[in-house]
Amino acid sequence: MEILKKIAVLIFFTASFLWLCKVFLLTSYPDFTSFYYGPLHVLQGQNPYVKDSHYFTPLVYPPIVMILFVPLVLFPYMLAGHVWLAMSLLCLLTSLFLCSKINNIQFFSNVNMFFCGLVFLSFPVKFTLGMGQINLLILLLVMLAIYYMQKKKKVVSGIFIGVSLMIKFFPLLLLILLALDKKWKVFFTTVIVCLALLFISIYVLHIDVVIHYFTQILPNLLSSWKGDYYNQSLSGFLTREMPNVLFRSIVRIIISLVLVCLTIVLFLKTNKKDKIFYLLKIAVVLTLSVLLNSFSWQHHFVFLIPAYYFVFFYILKKVRNKRNYMIMLLISYILVGINFAHPSDIPTLIQSHVFYGAFLLYVETLYILYRYA
């Protein structure tokens, strides 16, 4: 019976991974245009933030990204896209492997392969690969930071957090957790790495390009309100549901402050010295990051993979009455993992299903922290 179970899980793992690999058959990777043609402008001594018809959307990535992607310009565009896709898949698999290492779970155990299969089937993973996005690289950097933090290698951990921050600013809220837990060595290493990469950007690209990014591109990016279905952050939800711009701005500020303050208060009250318990705090921070971001496209929700992993295995290992917790986690996964091909055909309230799923994950994780502190 155990052999049959192992075979069934292996088939599910393999089939879901092969299904995910269909992204290699796509003829374009829209967001990858920024990572390919932006560095081309750099090599030509131009400002990469100029308007370029090759860009799928205006270039909004930090200057250091243009330097990191220069090697891919050596390949023709489609070959470079497939190389980047293969690298992104490797980042995903390595991140999942690190999740299992951090939780002391055998990677090829039945439960771990089943979890990985669910990850491969989720729309955010397919979406980030199909768009040629950078998210899985950020995910790997964050997972490496967590892994080395667990290994007490604080400087190495800070280096990975700093690099990830300068590429996409995503794990910014991790700095709050580091400060609350007085992990100052990690914190200040992160700051030093960020400053070092900033100076490298100025040296390679010229200070005018860096100033242009931080004064023109970034402010517009942070202040934009996008009501598209694919924006599943708090701001996207409020934009779809509240037409009054001033009112929804006030509501967003209030909700964001309440959630951040609630999280900080709970963190301060939960001083349990347990490695797995600390991972739940990281899960809360990662989830809150995508919820409160100015905009979180569905592909950004790959950042919830470690949050789901940490909560799932904490419930398996530490919670006695697992049923209700697992049901809530499954509902959250379904809401985050699905996609409507024609969202305009459904009510706007239902269009925010990913937001609801992520918020449910946040609430459940916070409750577990409170309940088992």
Question: Can you put this structure into words, describing what you see?
Answer:
The chain is an all-alpha fold.
Concise summary:
The protein has 18 helices and no strands.
Which tags fit this structure?
mainly alpha
Give the strand tally: 0
The overall pLDDT, averaged over residues, is 91
Radius of gyration: 21 Å
End-to-end gap: 38 Å
Oligomeric state as shown: single chain
Number of helices: 18
Overall geometry comes to globular
Give the amount of beta strand, in percent: under 5%
Helix-strand topology string: HHHHHHHHHHHHHHHHHH
Major sheet characteristics: none
Supply the helix-strand structural class.
mainly alpha
Which ranges are low-confidence, i.e. pLDDT below 50, for 5 or more consecutive residues?
A: none
Residues in helices, as a percent range: over 70%
Which SSEs are present, and which pair or pack?
Blueprint: H1 2-20, H2 32-43, H3 63-68, H4 77-102, H5 110-121, H6 123-130, H7 135-150, H8 154-168, H9 174-180, H10 184-205, H11 207-223, H12 234-241, H13 245-269, H14 275-292, H15 305-318, H16 322-337, H17 348-351, H18 353-372
